[in-house]
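[Meeting: bench + compute handoff]

Bench side (C.D.) handed over the final construct sequence. Compute side (W.E.) agreed to return the predicted structure before the next meeting so the bench team could plan truncations. Sequence as handed over:
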Amino acid sequence: MKDLKKININSLIILIFLIFDVRFFYMINLPKYFGGDGTNKMLLSLFGICVFIYYVIRHKFAAGEFGVYILGLYIILAAVSVHSLIKLDYKITQVVWPLFPFINLLYYFILREILNNKRNFRFFLRMAEIFWSILVLLFLAQRFMYLRSQTIFMKLGVMLPEYYFRHPELGFRIYNVFEGFNRIFVILTAYIVFKNHFRKCKFEMVYTLLGLLAILLVDGSRFYIATVVLVIIIEFLLVNKERLRFGAFLLLISGLLLGAAVGFKIYKSVNNDISEDTGSSYARTGAIDYYLSEMKGTTLFFGFGIANPDEGDPLYKVIHGPDDIYHFDDIGLVGTFAKFGIFSVIWYILFLLKMIHLTINTDKKRKALSIGITVMAAVALITQSYLDPQRILAMLFSMILLEINLRSPEVISN
């Protein structure tokens, strides 16, 4: 009876986590503070605090492999916030509001325990596949309807900046939604497909395809889709390195040729951006030069902070540059340095070294997933740091899966 109650509580936590993470599928109007900024999942954060307190009271607290890193990050965030209030004269709401996504790292202490049980993990995997498949299908349908007739049936205007979808000439591109959880979940489902050699894993096959479609057609980031495809290819090669046959080899070559064609198209697109001094690549190169030149004095140690001042605020041009086109979240580790200072760079390097250490010590039969997760975190640093608010859940699930795959590798199997 006790075990049944524990399973029910764990299942309830998983279900509520997923419902809050997908924001009720963006189909209902949440209160302003629960459904506002696209990167600020306040409802998820508040639930995380409650469950964390429950687990500390009812269970023996364990720091795990990454507990000290989470504590270290919170100390850095506290120091940066104080610096922003004292030296940059931000209002307290400007500083506190963007910190809520980082509260979600508390789920590490909860989910690492819940998901370390095979039954719980299977329940989480299936529910996540269902919830996120529905979310992807809704966004794909919304994309089709918007591009056809500018019709919006989802409650996007309440939860996301309107410039994502209120300009027909720009198409339909929604950032942030598929940048966090999906980034890691899609490479997990791909790994399970490869590990089971495409047998008895139809749910994982379906979600892998849907997750890739969400990145390609909704998120639309060239670097993001290229990174995910690279990691999935690495997983495939590692899982099948001892059983590649002629047919699989031809399939792989075809995939690589297709990937090369897509990569060449991306390269041409990026090259045009740079040569014409327009587009996101030009903005990124300008942002790197600008932020590095501005890192002086106390800013070198504590950065400009995570706050994003409104237009008209004296600090707006300091944060976004003289042309108002620079953003911390577009330039990877340099953006992290500009936001949080030099200590965040040291923290990130140590964090990556920890990931590499756990990957090296993982059983070689299960190592493909850990390698994929670690490669993703390292390559993403070029433009998409995991300390950007929209990718905090990618960091969270990277830590959880690396630890489970090391300590209880039998859990992550079909």
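W.E. noted at the follow-up: The two ends are 27 Å apart (CA to CA). C.D. will use this when planning the next construct.
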